[in-house]
């Protein structure tokens, strides 16, 4: 059965990439979470989507220019609603301490396609293993060099290239990277592409699927997972609760 991954948590109803958003996604029926990881100035993996803190906190500047102590002062919830004013940017470690106590699957997106973060791959990999999450974690990135680096570290992990438009025969590209999965933009997945990926045994987890008609399409096809801002809508469509 197609799994449901909450994109940055339950980011339609909570400020993205906060603990409130992850807890809500679990409540709403997500079976997995997609999160985005950057490094602070002092090299600590933190969970936030953008390279800068401007859009999702009350601060401004690049994540890479904040120490952990500085970034922890920021309010990561009020931009969304005052009810979330006490949300902070989670460290990856805090997040892992929590998720390991749940049954959730995990997709960590390494956000190093615009900023270079020294040793991001190794740091994230070590933390995931230290918290016993290795078997439940998929690594994705728009930076495919990072994925190849991870593959070199460990032949047994699931790595998934993210991309933004129509790749020609994505199964060939996945094989070239040593990837068992792809995370494509949902609109690129025409039936022949889905069929080709299935024929080549490549797992497919489209992003970001928020519309009933597309959710239905992917559940019908039984792709491996959908990545969505609306885990409750996805669950309702999967359950056939929506006519
Ligand atoms: O992992 C799927 C999706 O999160 C990729 O794009 O920009 O939302 O991180 P973005
Ligand atoms: Mg992401």
UniProtKB/TrEMBL annotation:
Residues 2-238 form the GP-PDE domain. SUPFAM superfamilies: PLC-like phosphodiesterases. Pfam families: GDPD (PF03009). PROSITE patterns: GP_PDE, PIPLC_X_DOMAIN. InterPro entries: GP_PDE_dom, PLC-like_Pdiesterase_TIM-brl. It comes from the Bacteria. PANTHER family: GLYCEROPHOSPHODIESTER PHOSPHODIESTERASE, CYTOPLASMIC, GLYCEROPHOSPHORYL DIESTER PHOSPHODIESTERASE. This is Glycerophosphodiester phosphodiesterase. It comes from Fictibacillus fluitans. The lineage of its organism: Bacteria, Bacillati, Bacillota, Bacilli, Bacillales.
């Amino acid at each position: 059965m197609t799994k449901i991954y909450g994109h940055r948590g339950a980011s339609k109803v909570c400020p993205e990439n906060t603990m409130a958003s992850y807890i809500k996604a679990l409540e709403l029926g997500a079976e997995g979470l997609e999160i985005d990881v950057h490094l602070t100035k002092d090299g600590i993996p933190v969970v936030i989507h953008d390279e800068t803190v401007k859009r999702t906190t009350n601060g401004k500047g690049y994540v890479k220019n904040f120490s952990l102590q500085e970034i922890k002062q920021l309010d990561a919830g009020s931009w969304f609603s005052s009810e979330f004013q006490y949300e902070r940017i989670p460290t990856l470690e805090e997040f892992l301490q929590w998720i390991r106590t749940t049954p959730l699957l995990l997709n960590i997106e390494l956000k190093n396609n615009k900023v270079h973060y020294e040793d991001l791959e190794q740091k994230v990999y070590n933390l995931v293993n230290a918290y016993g999450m290795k078997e439940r974690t998929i690594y994705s990135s728009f930076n495919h060099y990072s994925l190849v680096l991870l593959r070199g570290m460990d032949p047994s992990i699931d790595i998934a290239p993210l991309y933004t438009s129509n790749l020609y025969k994505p199964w060939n590209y996945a094989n070239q990277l040593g990837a068992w999965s792809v995370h494509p933009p949902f609109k690129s997945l025409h039936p022949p592409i889905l069929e080709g990926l299935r024929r080549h045994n490549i797992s497919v987890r489209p992003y970001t699927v928020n519309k009933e008609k597309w959710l239905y399409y992917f559940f019908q096809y039984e792709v491996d997972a959908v990545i969505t801002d609306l885990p409750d809508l996805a669950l309702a469509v999967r359950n056939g609760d929506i006519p």
